[in-house]
Amino acid sequence: MLRKSVYWPSAGVAEYHESETREPKDDEVLIANHYSLISQSSEHSWFINDKAHVVLGTTFPFIPGYSASGYVESVGKNVTKFKVGDKVIGAPVFGAHSNFAYVDEINTYAVPENVKLDDAVFYNLGMTALFTLDKAALRLGQSIAIIGAGVVGQIAIQGAKADGLHPIIAFDIQEQRRQAAKKAGADYVLDPNDSDGIESLIQQLGGGVDGALDVSGSNAGMNLAIHLARPLGKVVFCTANNDDQTLHYGELFIKNLTLLGDFVNTEMNRQHKAISNFLWLLSAKKIVAPAHEDTIYEPTDDNIKMLYGKVLKHDNTINNPIFKWR
């Protein structure tokens, strides 16, 4: 069978590629993908150079992507949990942007019957959001700030609401994303540059929020999270950013904050739990996938070059881009 893929031959270059499929290895599931999702922030880091590839265990050239959904095409001889025709998501470290993906059985998950594949494909970003909330370990009625209202931020807002956190305060520099945060269930939405509004909110909350999550990946967002947290509060950094950062250590120290990173691949049990929870929450209609009806693309060479040109420039005018493989 012909394997059609996005291909990165070198840094900053993306193109359409064809090759022959192989049989799955003993512990692998071969998935006939219907959709794969571009994770704009993480894939930007991996696309521009080899610096961030330590988490992937590969280098150029390769097929990128780590979020795909479809049906089982075939299985290796040791696979016991899945059979041909099962509706699944696959979470490979790379190789998802293809009409066929090879995924270890342990990284393959059944999709509930009432969940659409184009919604399920958001599972990896949904997992990141729920993993971050779980890491923060906030309790019913505690307050939370979420800096960054892209896909991960929007799902984190919904997860926080499902957890009974209150109030939920969202921040983003883009008006479109602030509106999306309101729709997702945020109680307050602010521009992170609105310093007067931020100081007023901190005062209203009696010194800040119980937990602050930065999902923006920016230095300003990280420091805003530190500033928003109340004394003895928690700050969680959720990003695939490998760059050096300058943090407001004095405020971190004086408020005796707990600072947490949440690279999901360091805690696989928590990661698997978060993926399963995301699929369950979708099935139970307690959360919804971000709007994406207008951002589904055929994986042509022109579309691949256009979309990764935007990824390269950090151009988020197209949010949640998805490749449709079937």
Mind explaining what this structure looks like?
With 326 residues, the protein is an alpha/beta fold. It folds into two domains: 154 residues, Medium-chain alcohol dehydrogenases, catalytic domain (Quinone Oxidoreductase, Chain A, domain 1); 142 residues, Rossmann fold, CATH 3.40.50.720. The protein is 32% helix and 25% strand. The strands form three sheets. Strands 3, 4, 5, 6, 7, 14 and 15 form a seven-stranded mixed β-sheet that branches. Strands 10-9-8-11-12-13 form a six-stranded parallel β-sheet, with helices on both faces. α3 crosses α4 and α3 packs across α9. The radius of gyration is 20 Å and the shape is globular. The mean pLDDT is 95.
Summary of the model, kept short:
This protein has ten helices and 15 strands.
List its salient traits:
single chain, 326 residues, alpha/beta, Quinone Oxidoreductase, Chain A, domain 1, Rossmann fold, 2 domains, seven-stranded mixed beta sheet, six-stranded parallel beta sheet, 10 helices, 15 strands, ADH-like_N, metal-binding
